[in-house]
Amino acid sequence: MDDGQRSTRQLSISNIAWPADQDAQALELVAKLGFDGVEVAPRKIFGDLHAVSLDTVQAYRRRLQDAGLAASALQAILFGVEGAHLFESPSSRDRMAAHLRRVAEIADALGARACVFGSPILRDPGSIPLDEASEIAETFLRVIAPDFANRNITLCFEANPPLYKCRFVTRTEEAYSLVERVAVPGVAMQLDTGTMFINGEDPDIIRRTECQIRHFHVSEPNLAPLGTSGVDHTPLASAVKTSNYPHWLSIEMRAVDDWRGAIQQAYTLVKSLYYDVSGTE
């Protein structure tokens, strides 16, 4: 399987859906079910990203390829990073930028073309007024964008709802407005159905913002296993199927005791709703 960019919407699942010590078994399962790729939380696989060698990263890429899988994206890219923050100080932004540059290297070595910028705690503006916080964020993203664009990778800013302790860019429309103002290659947005469910957002926002969406999480509130929280994916799935969004759909959910059953249930749900009956678009 070619692990470059896709012209059609293929399906992946984040590796946060299974225990770290079950990775080999999980890759075998997701390949057998019919997934096209895996979204990688890199610290879960590699530990300290500044200590791991690119040879080790490329070896994991080959491991995915051997299973018929590609790396669809990276997520949790700032997890465990000390001293990094978008708003605390210039030095905290420098620390964040240095780490994100390393993330871009890791993503390139894995063949992933999207990196999800979530991290609600690390973008809490505190007492900074919204207009000033927006200017800081826009400037930061423009500065870091070439490190991604030059590798044909996109840093995807994700709206996180207040339920996830987020205070900056909490709605999909706000993420869209932010990246529209940034307006440079290498930065776009991530869309998350869990955020849409929590916020009660109109499914039509998918079509209205699709020109800036470079990655898409199918999730439920609090990262519950898909199909267990009582939400109705049908309107969102219909909006996806009638949109022109061409990139990956990626299941995001937390690991549970029966992670194998949860993954199979999630695959069946997404294939039955977000794709046509034949499993294609």
From TrEMBL:
Alphabetized UniProt keyword annotations: Isomerase
GO MF entries: isomerase activity
One Pfam family per UniProt: AP_endonuc_2
InterPro entries according to UniProt: IolE/XylAMocC-like (IPR050312), Xyl_isomerase-like_sf (IPR036237), Xyl_isomerase-like_TIM-brl (IPR013022)
Cited Gene3D superfamilies: Divalent-metal-dependent TIM barrel enzymes (3.20.20.150)
Domain Xylose isomerase-like TIM barrel residues, every copy: 27-266
Record has Isomerase as a keyword: yes
Protein name, UniProt field: Sugar phosphate isomerase/epimerase
